[in-house]
Amino acid sequence: MESTFKSNLKAWLYLLPALIFLGVFMVYPLIDVFVYSFEEGYNSASQTSFGTGIYNYSYVLHDPYFLQALKNTLILVAITVPSSTILSLLISLGLNKITKLKELFQTIYFLPYVTNTLAVGLVFMILFKKTAYTDGMVNLLITAFGGKSVDFIEGPYWAKMMVLCIYTIWIVMPFKVLVLTSSLASVNPIYYSAARVDGTSNTRIFFRITLPMISPMIFYLVITGFIGAFKAYSDAVALFGTNLNVAEMNTIVGYVYDMLYGDSGGYPSYASAAAIILFSIVLTITVINLLVRNKSKR
Amino acid sequence: MKVVLKNLTKRFPSRDKKHPEDVIAVNNFDFTIPDGKLIGLLGPSGCGKSTTLNLISGLEKPTRGQIFFGEDDVTKLPAENRGIGLVFQNYALYPHLTVRQNILFPLQNLKGKDKMTKQEMETAAIGAAKLVQIDNLMQRKPAELSGGQQQRVAIARALVKMPKVLLLDEPLSNLDARLRLQTREEIRRIQKETKITTIFVTHDQEEAMSICDQIVVMKDGVVHQIGAPQEVYDNPKNLFVAKFLGTPPINVFEGNVKGGKLFIGKEEIMDTPDLKDGEVYITIRPEGFKHDSEGVLSLELERIEVMGRDISVIAHHDNCQNVDIRAIISSDNVIDTSKATVRFNLNPKKVFVFDKTSEERLL
After folding, report:
1. Alpha-carbon distance A286 to A296, whole Å?
2. Would you say the ipTM is above 0.95?
3. Is 3.40.50.300 the CATH number for B3-236?
């Protein structure tokens, strides 16, 4: 008995540094945020509030800026998660098939992952932004094919959303390609030999063998993809600057940031309420994902 | 369906820069596998037996030569059109599909006039499952089966299309000893029931000897001998075949022929009037020794092992290549273990003589 207590003590001792850090920088702030979200008009300087209730939630949910941010985030998630996953799967399948220059292509596809977000934003500016001197690469192409040039950065909503989606997909794809390429490579080739001997068509091999075998990885990518897309913020800043509300391109995390530190900031209660709303959305979607996954497993 | 291999050769490009010459995995194979028989491709690891199987299956393309199924040249035919069933060494059952789905899988691939209705597929799958006695496991996933059961599922999946030729790649190597004995009988039974020409690859000579109608003994991509197991065992063509077949292994002595007589060391053991003088290998099967205190060959006695029916005499001889000489004699014999030497007469049918350089059989 004593010995287990002793060895337990030792274990706790080893865990202590991590626990302290997690407690101070994760658990305590989380609880704090939860508490703030129910305190009306909390003032961080005086540490006072008018009272408790759901007023903050009501305010946030009626704030047009928040609703805009929510809409943007949902569109972004709905478009980028499936399309980036499918695109990465296609690229990985291609990478898995080729033998020549495979490493080179793998490196090229991985490059965006190690490139700074803002640097990528700059490249996208060159591609999409209209300046006094040029319409941007994409517009030059559009006009070359007889289309009408579009202002992608300060123009219509759909154009800005499209750029944001393309940007996000481009940013998240390398990691997915990396994960999928390695999980494709880890499928034992004997299954393909067996399928070939049995005269299985390529589509059937893909849907009945390859896909089920790499499905745990795809599932993992979808979940982390959802979470990542819901947390989107820096991508929008890189493209549209910090004044996202004016650009109609704010995201939920952007809204939280603005409420805390932005020009209209200084409202930790509203920021907390928005953060808790985001948390519950992500939680719900993850739980649904898990349920779907468990059901399909059976 | 008989399978004919004609001048079949497979070379692989060398990956070793120091030895840029091609690796010849299969060298000029030329033999016929008769219809409805169970054939064992037997040889040590790396002898090209799996490559041969892959060539017959169509998973590999031969560098040269032809393969016929019956009268049809299938050399250029892709694997899926050859009508073969292949059982892989690690079974290659699809882990996410149930036993039933695994067995149905090949049938669902059938197209055109071969296409089956759901009912026909179900019947065929249950038929195949019954044949290998796993029809009570149809809803299980492969991970929920024992090795032996997985093996049966793999065989059922290979058989369900009623292939012309059934190929088994080291089918027993992943099973434990007891299961291996049981499963090899099972393979024999299934083959007898279906009468499908079956080729199976193994490095275990006992396995091949016990169930095959014919064995093909290979080494380094070359066929050394083809024949019925007993015939090959009793009449090995060369030293390799003699050494490869038989447990305990054959005892190899260095000896010589002088004036029509065969010598091991100074002892004259046999009259060999037809042999020329020179150095030879003399091999004696463990069961070829007859205990006789006046016998022609004397060995240093090490110990004896009594195994009920038989006695195993373990001995040494300076001219013997084996670490231990094993002689298996009937337990009626009484060996005096206090003596340092033990003498034997030899059964001439169990003694083979090979040329020292070519290692070909002389007697």
Report:
1. 15
2. no
3. yes
